[in-house]
Amino acid sequence: MAHNETIEPSFHEMVQMFAKEAVPHVQKKLLAELPFKGSLTEKEHHIKGIMMSMEQCDDVLEFNFPIKLDNGEFEMIQGWRAQHSHHVKPCKGGIRFASDVNMNEVKALASLMTYKCSVVDVPYGGAKAGVKVDPTKYSLGELERICRRFALELAKKNFIGPTTDVPAPDVGTGEKEMAWIADTYANTVGLGDINALSCVTGKPVQYGGVEGRSAATGLGLFFGVSNFLNSEKNCKACGLDKPGIAGKTIIIQGFGNVGSYAFRFLQEGGAKIIGLIEIDTALYDASGLDCKELIEYRNAHGGVKGFPGAKEVDRKELMYHECDVLICAALQKQITAENVDKIKAKVIAEGANGPTTFYAHKQLLKRNIMVIPDLYLNSGGVTVSYFEWLKNLNHVSFGRLNFKHEKENAMCLLRKSTDWVVV
Known about the structure:
Helix 11 links the parallel strand 11 and strand 12. The two termini are about 25 Å apart. The chain has 14 helices and 12 strands. The chain has a 7-stranded mixed β-sheet, with helices on both faces. A 5-stranded mixed β-sheet has the order 1-2-4-3-5. Helix content is about 40%, strand content about 15%. It is of the alpha/beta class. The protein is globular, with a radius of gyration of 22 Å. The chain folds into 3 domains: about 10-55, no CATH class; about 60-205, Rossmann fold, CATH 3.40.50; about 215-375, NAD(P)-binding Rossmann-like Domain (Rossmann fold, 3-Layer(aba) Sandwich). It has helices spanning about 10-35, 40-55, 105-120, 140-155, 175-185, 215-230, 230-235, 255-270, 290-300, 315-320, 360-365, 375, 380-395, 405-420; strands at about 60-70, 75-85, 90-95, 125-130, 165-170, 250-255, 270-275, 280-285, 310, 325-330, 345-350, 370.
């Protein structure tokens, strides 16, 4: 598709377009299964109203607050928190720190969270937050002040709390930031609330977190890709020779939390990672890259640029290189109407949120390039966050106490979240 044939919509508009396309399928199911007292016409109107209510976010809050820098100067910080749906409470969604984040992006991500939670059957409404900062440009003390002040701004508007809105890590944030936010809430508006620490998930283990939360999204991606490739029907549909993950050639875009863990688990599963695309470089090795070597190099040099064990190539060209699976684990809108015709992968795995645009998705399907959707593939994080939230509310001492049948219940939920096959 030529670029001038289609004007790509904004991220939020793109999410709405995907949702509207799904509505007719959902309406049929609701019409058949939803309990309702009234005539068929009244039921149809009721269902239509439900679908309309999902088009926009219920609440969107914008924040502007000053932060004192280490040099004594002040800087205004801008941020947003969007709550897409209150059909169940609390709302759930990460906090993103990025210099290019905006309200449209936050609303889109909040919408996706609602649908993602529904896919894995965890009882949350979708939410998301964005703070317009580049975390690499601030000192540790400055980042702490930003996090704590943002937590207070959320609390003042009742946009954080164990039963109202529970944030989590996202791009640019992690365990450290969640610990600051939880501590701020627990020592201010949550003072005296025995459930205060459950106001956020993704915390350090010693502060109420759970083992494996950092790896959860990447591990879920591995399970999703493996489950897809283990189906002979799926492999035949997209032109792969044989089922199974062993020997499959994979290119990964993004080596952050999701991409690095997915890389590790896929390599351990027998896949060959021939390419890695990062923000400042791209690495290629036809014989396969090694995750452990890359992580050691990144830890020593602050990135993978200059890694001696692979050939540096053009970032865009590597994305268009032939492979069995292209994993998009960076940011949204990476495969668009402009570049979709150049994609040569047989399977697109959406590790990031919304990496494939509405028009590009249609073109990929026309070419029999299968897309494993983000709502399913990157839901491991919110699934484990749900476990953490429940443990906090039940005041379980981590590593020392487990409720009866807890392991069996957890495994049932995990199986449910990975039980997906293309029809």
